[in-house]
Amino acid sequence: MAKNQLTQDSQFIVGENKGLDYVLAFLCLALFSYGLIDAIRHNFTNLSASTFVFLIALVAAILFFIKGNSKRVYIRINNKGIYQDERLVTGWDNFHNAYISQKEKVITIQDNFQLVVEYLKDGTKQGIRKKIPLTNTQNKSEEEVLEAVKFFWSVYKKQRGV
Predict the structure, then answer these.
(1) pLDDT per position as a tens digit, 59-76
(2) CB–CB of 35/53 below 8 Å?
(3) Calculated CA dihedral for residues 123, 90, 148, 15, nearest 10 degrees
(4) Is this model's pTM higher than 0.90 or not?
């Protein structure tokens, strides 16, 4: 469960794992520094392909620093419903089910987990399934996200006497 205990008035927020982003940024900066030192030693002539790869690591370092400084909220779960990027996916009155699945991708080393939210479209009986991607650098685990959904769903049901 989350480090802070959830209450019916609290919020569960999934954002960036800033520590991980900064560590990755510094590792990429170290790779860039190595490539730069190698290029300087060779007076920027007759550079190997690996030197160019190390120099390109600066781009990755910048991107990780930007992600680390981001205040983006990927998922917010509270007593009103489930939000993705600050837009309401569904309120608890239309919620049906949620679970974690993994998107099948060929030839990849990363996880591709998704939070699948099943709910009814407003004013109809039409069911909708929304897949919310979970990132590899988020600050909450897949299990914590699912526990938060279950917690707030049970709070809603208790309030309704269900």
Answers:
(1) 999 999 999 998 899 999
(2) yes
(3) 180
(4) no
How far apart, in whole angstroms, are the C-alpha atoms of residue 114 and residue 54?
32
Question: Are 96 and 127 contacting, i.e. CB atoms less than 8 angstroms apart?
Answer: yes
How confident is the model at residue 41, as a pLDDT? 86
Look up residue 58 and give its two tokens: 């600066």
- Those residues with Cβ within 8 angstroms of residue 79's Cβ, 6 or more apart along the chain or in another chain: 8, 9, 92, 152, 155, 156
* ∠ Cα 25 86 125 (to 5°): 135
Helix (H, G, I), strand (E, B) or coil at 152: helix
> Which phi and psi angles does 41 have, rounded to 5°?
-60, -35
Residues 124, 156, single domain; the answer is yes
How many independent structural domains does the chain possess?
2
Structural domain includes residue 131: yes
Strand pairing of 81-84 and 75-78?
antiparallel
- Please indicate, yes or no, if residue 124 is contained in any of the structural domains: yes
Structure-block tokens of residue 126: 């039409």
Report the SS3 class of residue 101.
strand
State both tokens at 154. 């049970």
Residues 142 and 96 occupy one common structural domain: yes
